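queue> pop job 88
queue> type: inverse folding (structure -> sequence)
queue> payload:
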């Protein structure tokens, strides 16, 4: 919040600088301006802009912005362009590089550590603010935790050996302190704190349908359990509650060479309900609303927003239809709106 306030102040000062420069240049063109110590030339414009925004702006963008202002005083450029971001055609200017497409950030750090191998892709990325780290899961089974301490990143990864099943999503269990990931037929619970290379987690299987997405329900005050929501390729949404006792009481025999302990899915009570007539593309729980959302490319039951209790009964759910379905959605608490993308 403090960074946002600082940025707004800097932006206001920058816009005042531009207005003052336009007034000065307009007077110059009509012969009414008398030079004084407050004259804004390029050097003063460059120095002031650098002071306001620091390394977030690049020299070529400052120069281009200044040139654009003085060449056409009636049609001033958008402030976004000082960062190399353009809202329309750039009038022949070179397109901005990906390096400059960041606002509100004065320092950017690139993590060069490779967490995936060739022909692998990241399928899930989750930020865990309370613990200051980020979890990623790759399609071919690499689970990684990036932790930030003292302004530097370090990471530790785990490779989940599998035959053909690909990881389709991941999240973090805040109470049990496990990383959860789903494949086409299993649920993976990784104890990232364990220093053992084997048996440092659990696999719940088999799951009858192909799991496509997963999220954590952040409502439980019980530090010994977490609740997980999952969506599959048949339009079903599942509700799975996992406790510390499950890890002890429901273990199956584990092979010596196995990475994980196996838990039989039939030993769990996993309510499920068919909410869509096509794949469940994304599922998310909103603590502020005490509701979960799920979406699908289904044109009839495109988006559902309701209490997780609806997964355990047959009461009607709140849903709406969008032509060709919904692929993504999010909630903005400040604006109190849900936005969907189809």
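queue> result:
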């Amino acid at each position: 919040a403090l960074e946002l306030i600082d940025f707004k102040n800097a932006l206001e000062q920058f816009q005042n600088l531009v207005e003052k420069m336009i007034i000065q240049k307009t007077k110059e063109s009509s012969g009414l301006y008398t030079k004084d110590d407050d004259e804004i030339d390029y050097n003063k414009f460059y120095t002031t802009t650098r002071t306001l925004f620091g390394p977030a702006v690049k020299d070529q963008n400052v120069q281009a912005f200044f040139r654009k202002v003085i060449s056409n005083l009636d049609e001033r450029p958008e402030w976004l362009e000082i960062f190399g971001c353009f809202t329309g055609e750039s009038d022949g200017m070179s397109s901005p590089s990906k390096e400059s497409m960041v606002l509100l950030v004065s320092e950017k750090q690139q993590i060069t550590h490779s967490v995936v191998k060739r022909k692998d892709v990241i399928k899930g990325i989750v930020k865990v603010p309370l613990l200051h780290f980020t979890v990623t899961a790759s399609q071919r089974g690499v689970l990684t935790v990036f932790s930030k301490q003292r302004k530097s990143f370090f990471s530790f990864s785990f490779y989940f050996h599998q035959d053909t099943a690909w990881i389709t999503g991941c999240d973090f269990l805040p109470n049990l302190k496990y990383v959860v990931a789903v494949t086409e037929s299993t649920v993976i619970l990784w104890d990232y704190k364990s220093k053992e290379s084997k048996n440092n987690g659990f696999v719940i299987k088999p799951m009858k349908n192909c799991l496509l997405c997963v999220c954590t329900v952040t409502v439980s005050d019980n530090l010994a359990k977490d609740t997980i929501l999952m969506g599959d390729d048949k339009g079903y949404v599942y509700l799975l509650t996992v406790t510390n006792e499950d890890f002890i009481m429901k273990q199956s025999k584990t092979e010596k060479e196995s990475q994980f302990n196996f838990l039989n899915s039939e030993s769990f009570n996993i309510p499920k309900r068919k909410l869509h007539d096509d794949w469940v593309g994304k599922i998310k729980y909103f603590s502020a609303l005490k509701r979960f959302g799920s979406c699908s490319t289904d044109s009839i039951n495109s988006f559902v927003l309701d209490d997780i209790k609806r997964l355990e009964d047959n009461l009607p759910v709140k849903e709406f239809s969008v032509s060709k379905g919904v692929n993504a959605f999010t909630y903005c608490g400040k604006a109190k709106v849900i936005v969907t993308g189809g």
